[in-house]
Amino acid sequence: MIRYATLGTNDLQNATAFYNRVLLPLDLHPTPFSNETFYARKEAASDDIVLAVTLPFNGAPATPGNGTMIALHAQSKQQVDAAYAAAVAQGGQCEGAPGPRPDYHPRMYAAYFRDLDGNKLAVVYFEPVRDEP
């Protein structure tokens, strides 16, 4: 199980503003520190971080990983739609508009985008399993 994910940025102020809007529909709230911003649910304990956005520790430029993607959990299709809309409205690049993804999973609804530094993210919701009568 993954504890949290970290994304590098070259402009922490812009990245934090971007993620503050994108992650709000997912009920993830920021806690800024000197060189990074942590995101967690508002009611969560301080160590229940889901995502961190940071300037690289080694001082080298942040670059997106080839083949790397962070998938964030949504609790509804509306959350997927809202997070994606916030990302694109702020200059994030569309990598797949919100919609069903039956080729990946029959109950999957997702959207894909790149942030201002080129990091690829997905916001994913799985329809509940329906009991057959």
What's this, in brief?
The protein is of the alpha/beta class and 133 residues long. It is built from two helices and eight strands. Strand 7 (108-114) and strand 8 form a beta hairpin.
Topology:
Blueprint: E1 5-8, H1 12-23, E2 28-32, E3 36-41, E4 51-54, E5 70-73, H2 77-89, E6 93-100, E7 108-114, E8 120-126
Parallel strand pairs: 1-4, 5-8
Antiparallel strand pairs: 2-3, 3-4, 6-7, 7-8
Helix pairs in contact: 1-2
Could you explain the architecture of this structure?
With 133 residues, the chain is of the alpha/beta class. 19% of the residues lie in helices and 34% in strands. It has 2 helices and 8 strands; from the N terminus they run βαββββαβββ. It has helices at residues 12-23, 77-89, and strands at residues 5-8, 28-32, 36-41, 51-54, 70-73, 93-100, 108-114, 120-126. A 4-stranded mixed β-sheet has the order 1-4-3-2, covered by helices on one side. It has a 4-stranded mixed β-sheet with strand order 5-8-7-6, covered by helices on one side. Strand 2 and strand 3 form a beta hairpin. Helix 1 (12-23) runs antiparallel to helix 2.
